[in-house]
């Protein structure tokens, strides 16, 4: 079985197309603080998690190089899917709800993660252990610090945890803005030294809180929106109506399946991921679906402003 840090045949070509498709899903993707990701040493990325598969896809866009990822172990049950996930540098991580026997398998995966970052391929861990389509941060689990500590001991070189804040303008609409901020790295040896003399449980609790606060600061507040004069926007909406209808009809094979699929999925955090998948397999319709969703957002924002006034 290939190592997740190794160069895979066709991976970079595939990644280029995936990155292009990811960008097509949003109006803009702004990356800040990329210089905070250390060029030397082992690196664990610790972003917030709110949009299922779209979150790791955005990490690939931001870093523009291979990255390893962890995902919940139950999605690896199908051998074919497991092979595809492996090719994508994704390894299974069991959660407590999966039972102790499954959680015990994580130690072998931890060794693989350490091997990955030891070969200068960053590994992205979603330290909350769950996702939700909201702006904010769930409590951080201590697994990321356990792995970082093990890596420091085994590799004998600095191991950094880099907080990352991902802020979506829209959690369910397409063609919104995304901002990705990389914060100051936390060197794990120095982090544990700061709490020297405290009980181990207290040290992990303090570090988890530090990481959570760092991510929250990077996520920030809701992105401000500039709408302009309502009268001019209403006129523009009327003038754009024929183009809107044309684009809606031409991109029917994207937006209609999206709505049908999402009606059958309880977890609405998959919205961006399903939209991405439809763009991935139907690229010829981007030219119509992108302006369709942008004009749809324009109309929705105008309607919201008009309702607030009344």
How would you characterize this protein structure?
With 310 residues, the protein is an alpha/beta fold. The chain folds into two domains: 11-219, Glycerol-3-phosphate (1)-acyltransferase (3-Layer(aba) Sandwich); 230-309, no CATH class. Helix content is 51%, strand content 13%. It has twelve helices and eight strands. Strands 1, 2, 3, 4, 5, 6, 7 and 8 form an eight-stranded mixed beta sheet that branches. The longest helix is centred in the last third of the chain and has 24 residues, at 286-309. The protein is globular and about 65 Å long. The N and C termini lie far apart (63 Å).
Short description:
By secondary structure, the protein is α/β, with parallel strands linked by helices. It is built from twelve helices and eight strands.
Bulk shape: globular
Instruction: Count up the domains.
Output: 2
Q: Which second-level CATH architecture of the largest domain applies? A: 3-Layer(aba) Sandwich
Radius of gyration: 21 Å
Residue share in helices?
Answer: 40-55%
Helical stretch tally: 12
Rounded mean pLDDT score? 91
Terminal CA distance:
63 Å
Which spans have pLDDT < 50 for at least 5 consecutive residues? none
Beta-strand residue percentage: 5-15%
Q: Find the structural class using helix and strand composition.
A: alpha/beta
- H/E series: HEEHEHEHHEHEEEHHHHHH
* CATH topology description of the largest domain: Glycerol-3-phosphate (1)-acyltransferase
């Amino acid at each position: 079985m290939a190592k997740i840090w190794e160069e895979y045949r066709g991976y970079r070509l595939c990644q280029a197309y995936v990155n292009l498709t990811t960008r097509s899903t949003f109006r803009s993707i702004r990356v800040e603080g990329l210089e905070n990701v250390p060029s030397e040493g082992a690196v664990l990325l610790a972003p917030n998690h709110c949009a299922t598969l779209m979150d790791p896809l955005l990490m690939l866009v931001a870093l523009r190089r291979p990255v390893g990822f962890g995902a919940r172990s139950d999605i690896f049950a199908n051998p074919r899917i497991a092979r595809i996930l492996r090719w994508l540098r994704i390894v299974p991580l069991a959660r407590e709800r999966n039972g102790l026997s499954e959680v015990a398998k994580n130690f072998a995966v931890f060794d693989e993660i350490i091997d990955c970052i030891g070969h200068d391929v960053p590994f992205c861990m979603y330290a909350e252990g769950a996702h939700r389509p909201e702006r904010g941060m769930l409590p951080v689990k201590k697994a990321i610090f356990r792995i970082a500590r093990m890596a420091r001991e085994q590799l004998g070189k600095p191991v950094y945890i880099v907080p990352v804040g991902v802020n979506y303008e829209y959690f369910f609409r397409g063609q919104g803005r995304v901002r990705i901020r990389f914060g100051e790295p936390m060197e794990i040896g120095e982090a544990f030294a700061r709490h020297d003399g405290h009980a181990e449980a207290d040290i992990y609790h303090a570090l988890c809180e530090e990481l959570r606060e760092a991510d929250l600061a990077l996520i920030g507040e809701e992105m401000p929106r500039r709408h302009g004069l309502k009268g001019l926007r209403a006129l523009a909406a009327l003038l754009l109506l024929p183009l809107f209808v044309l684009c809606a009809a031409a991109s029917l094979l994207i937006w209609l399946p999206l709505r049908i699929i999402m009606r059958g999925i309880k977890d609405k955090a998959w919205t961006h991921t399903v939209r991405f998948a439809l763009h991935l397999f139907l690229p010829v319709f981007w030219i119509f679906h992108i302006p369709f969703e942008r004009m749809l957002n324009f109309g929705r924002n105008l309607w919201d402003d008009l309702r607030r006034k009344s």
